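Today's session is about reading a structure prediction critically. Students often jump straight to the picture, but the first step is always the sequence itself: look for stretches that repeat, for charged clusters, for runs of hydrophobic residues. Only then move on to the predicted structure, which in these notes is written as discrete structure tokens rather than atom positions. Here is the chain we will use throughout the hour.
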Amino acid sequence: MFESISSLLSRVLNPSLSEPLLAGKSRGTCRDITCGSPLRVALSVCVLVLVGIITACGLINWTGMMWPPAATGVRLCEQDECLRTIDAFLLNQPRQTFLKNSAGLMQTFGPDSIGGGPCGDEKCKLVEPCPNYQQTPHCRYDVYDNALAAIYLTKRGKLEEARHVLDAFIQLLYPAPADSRRQLSDSNASASKRQLLLLAASYTDAPTWAGAYQGTGVADGAVDTGNNAWVGMAFAHFAAASGEECYASVARDILLELRTATSCDDELKGFAARLAPYPHFYRSTEHNTDMFALSSMLNASTAAEQARTFVHGMFGGVAQAPATYATGTADSEKCDADIPLAPVAVDTVFWNLLSSVDPVASRKQASVDFALTEPMNEADLLGLWSIDVDRIGGKDGLGVGEVLFGFRFTSWGHGIQWENTASGAMALLHYRKYFSPPEDLGALVAERAKRAHNSLRKLLVTYGCVPASVLGGNINAWIDNDHSADFPGGSDTGIGWTYLRYPHVAATAWTGLLLLYAAEASAASVDENANPFAPPRHPLPPPGKDSTCLPPPMPSGG
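Below is the predicted structure for this chain, in token form.
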């Protein structure tokens, strides 16, 4: 009962929460208990009277029923402290050790959880040292997370640390001359004159090799366009910062291979999402956003325009939310152009905005307005803004009861996903800087960018990293599908998986880039060089003959 009253009180009385989106009325921000609709005023009075009666009669022991306890008031770390915390987390992550020259990818989740909550082993105990370890037993080393970490380390000036990640990618992209495990094709067209085999989505700490898409060393053998484009972006940023031509050649090789294998030539254009050995025909708005960014960095204007055409064509494609972008197309045939029923993914709004792939001001205003809408109930499919309470906290109870603000993963999801909150906060600051929103939307952008920015800084102080989620519960709790539970099983994406309470490389690296972009949400200026979708500040080295970072070429005819 206390939980429902507490929720009602916060909804009705908290002056910082937005007015519900009413049919036929624009959204405003209620700053006083007496503002808003007559219904709101009446409900406010009724709730206050009800609470007074309950308290006076002693019907509820409020102190004994308070869960979680009152927030401890976590401080905000300043930019330098925040960044040093992120550096320490990333540089101490477990690494692969089987590759040459100290190269190795970082473990994606962990090491170890931050606790699933006090609801018993069946529903709250998390698997250690990482999700799914009981089944594998290996942890994931995702290529997207590692590409993002390499970009962050590059922007921090930690080029040697970034090089260790990129050199791991190189050994997983280019077969060594003695490797006869894969059938190789002609490589004369590539920038490096070497055969490149695109990366799987995720590896483990067990040995594997270029072109392997199954086995103990592979956690997820899907060859996705977006993941590989992110790796290409990491090489481009590094090459621009270091001036090393060899790493630019790797970015160009990746783009060439993706264009060759995934290009669509129908009216929508764009690039397909997944290659052999487990191909899928759908086209993803997010993947094409990634392809636009990589193509722009490499001055590949034809490929960039191809990706832009597709993303432009996805606006208004969602019947449930026509003022934003569809997640992508169907999967029944090559370059399928049908748009199926699907939720709105947060990255289709914010990564789209950061990349400038579809810089139509009216579309940016509509999609940002959609994203900043807070769903009013579990069934509400409008909006992506969310509010979570950390019921567990960190060491010595730090952060227990802290109210945090961010974005859910999709419009079908539940709970804040912190990786997308960090990128969303950067996108809001980008929007405020480069667009001219109407006054009410501009005020909402500023408020919610600050809330998200501050929440991420609090998480760094509480946990020494940014976790994937602060919501407790394990996979069994998630299967129950009870989003009103105190420990619901993490932040549910709404599309078939959840993020649990583990330290998260992508969430932490994105937060680092956000803090490099703007130390405070109220900062008058931003550093666009920290935007991973933006072309680097310095130009990439032009194509040449430097191959010092690569394995020797395959023997002729090999």
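Discussion point for the tutorial: The CA atoms of residues 312 and 358 lie 6 Å apart.
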